[in-house]
Amino acid sequence: MPVQVVNVLGIMLGGLPVTRTPVVFIHGAWLHARSWESWADRFAGRGWPTHTPGWPGEPPTAAEAREGAELLPDLGLAELTEHYARLVRSLDVPPVLVGHSVGGLVAQHLLGTGVGEAAVALAAAPVNDVSLPAARSTGDDTGRGPVLLSPARFRETFANTVADEEARRLYERYAIPAPRRLLADLGCGGAPRHPLTAADTTNPGRGPLLLVSGQEDLIVPDGVTRAVYKQYGDSTALTDLKQFADRGHTLVVDGGWRLVADHVLGWLDEHVVGGR
């Protein structure tokens, strides 16, 4: 899927052109790249150049991904991480990385290696030795091919804080299958976690990082995000934590997305050079 670029622009400062810091959005498992559509519009309206690339081989819509699930590539974490690393390195200005779920893990890994200006990890899959509670697993750990959540399972686990009608709408517009190999790389089903689930939490030279959790999240519980936040405690680089009450794993797409997005925008305006 080609990279979507929204409102890429320059501004003038003292007669010299200054390129605004771009934002690269990285979506997570079981959600399509369109899950960032409202965020991209809101960020662009505030002057941030935005990129919303899909994963390799991702169809243009979630419906197409569900209907052609057997045609989707069985991506692993290495391919996914390298896909975004190449994109970030291709930009003229180091971007802010905004990732949800697995995308938040990828954003943290890249930032820890010096790739990217800053990062925001929303309900991010855990890094290093922090693990998800086994009871929270959503994946089908048997069989072959990509794992597609049923509407009922999506409602139960992802959209547990919204009404049934909204959960159905979110499923139809955004829900896609997740690659089975990626889920294994994340440790689902008891598989050993891939080395790229690691993030350098002690790197003093990395850019600012904001961790965001939903306190009713059943996929990545708030306690998991807090445990990751503690791992950054020995770093002198800026790390912030924001917890949203009564929010689940759909906090980037459900009716409360704007509150989360505006908090992120405020944080970026404060901490990212070139963001204003």
Number of strands: 9
Q: Output mean pLDDT.
A: 90
Biggest sheet strand order reads 1-5-4-6-7-8-9
Tell me the β content: 5-15%
- Rg calculated over all Cα atoms: 18 Å
Assign an overall shape. Answer: globular
Low-pLDDT ranges: 1-17
Number of helices in the DSSP assignment: 9
Give, in order, the helices and strands. Answer: EEEEHEHHEHEHHHEHEH
- Measured as a percent range, the helix fraction is 25-40%
N- to C-terminal separation?
Answer: 30 Å
Structural class, from secondary structure content?
Answer: alpha/beta
Brief sketch in words of this structure:
With 276 residues, this protein is an alpha/beta fold. 32% of the residues lie in helices and 14% in strands.
Describe the model.
This protein is α/β, with parallel strands linked by helices and 276 residues long. 32% of the residues lie in helices and 14% in strands. It is built from nine helices and nine strands. The strands form two sheets. A seven-stranded mixed beta sheet has the order 1-5-4-6-7-8-9, with helices on both faces. Helix 1 packs across helix 9. The protein starts with a strand and ends in a 5-residue tail after the last helix.
